[in-house]
Amino acid sequence: MTTASEPSVVSPGVSRHPLDPDPVRATKARAVFALGLFGALTGLFVGGVVPATVALVLARQAHREAYLSGGFLTGSVWLRRGERLAWTGLVLTAVVVVVAVVIGVVRLAEAPYGQDFAPDVD
After folding, report:
1. Span between the terminal Cα atoms of the chain, in Å
2. 32 near 40, Cβ under 8 Å?
3. Which residues, in sequence order, are CB contacts of 36 under 8 Å at separation 6+?
4. CA 18 to CA 119: how far, in whole Å?
5. Where are the annotated segments for Disordered (predicted)?
6. Which of 81, 79, 99, 85 is nearest to 48 (CA)?
7. How far are the Cα atoms of 45, 63, 92, 101 from residue 40, in angstroms, in the given order?
8. CA dist 112 to 65, 116, 118, Å?
9. 8 Å CB contact between 24 and 71
10. Which residues pair with 45 in a beta bridge?
């Protein structure tokens, strides 16, 4: 472990400046993962669209912040996993919607047509 008086080492042989901040995991990375997981788990219930969409928006912001931080924000693995889960949730939702539309069209096609009332009998 390094103490406050020792410079920490980023990679072997390269020391950081003592005033450089320590690398920390981006809090948005955890949020993206959590929302992506929730979106994937609820994707079959069409409610997964909202958390998955929010996860993708946050992921874009987190990628931009990580790039601008110059390597001091970590968590790219969590971001990638969260994005994959969010896309999985959106795909599951799309599949459910397409299946529901196909089932609705098939049932509508099987419905009887013509007169829906009894004919007049004299």
Report:
1. 100
2. no
3. 51, 52, 55, 81, 82, 83, 84, 85, 86, 88, 89
4. 93
5. 1-22
6. 85
7. 10, 21, 8, 21
8. 59, 9, 14
9. no
10. none
pLDDT digits (tens, 9 = 90+) for 37-84: 999 999 888 888 999 999 999 999 998 988 888 778 888 899 999 999
Contact call for residues 82 and 27 (beta carbons, < 8 A): no
* Cα–Cα nearest to 92, from 37, 11, 54: 37
- How buried is residue 55: exposed, middle or buried, by Cβ count under 10 Å (0-12/13-18/19+)? buried
Q: Going by C-beta distance under 8 Å and a sequence separation of 6 or more, which residues neighbour residue 25?
A: 73, 74, 75, 78
Using DSSP, state whether 73 is helix, strand or coil: strand
Helical H segments across the chain, by residue range: 27-41, 49-68, 76-110
Q: Are 49 and 93 in contact (CB under 8 A)?
A: yes
Task: Check: pTM over 0.85? Answer yes or no.
Answer: no
| Distances in whole angstroms, Cα of residue 121 to Cα of each of 114, 115, 117, 118 | 17, 14, 12, 9
Phi and psi based region of residue 14 (left: phi greater than 0; alpha: psi -120 to 50; beta: remaining): beta
Place of tokens 């790039």: 67
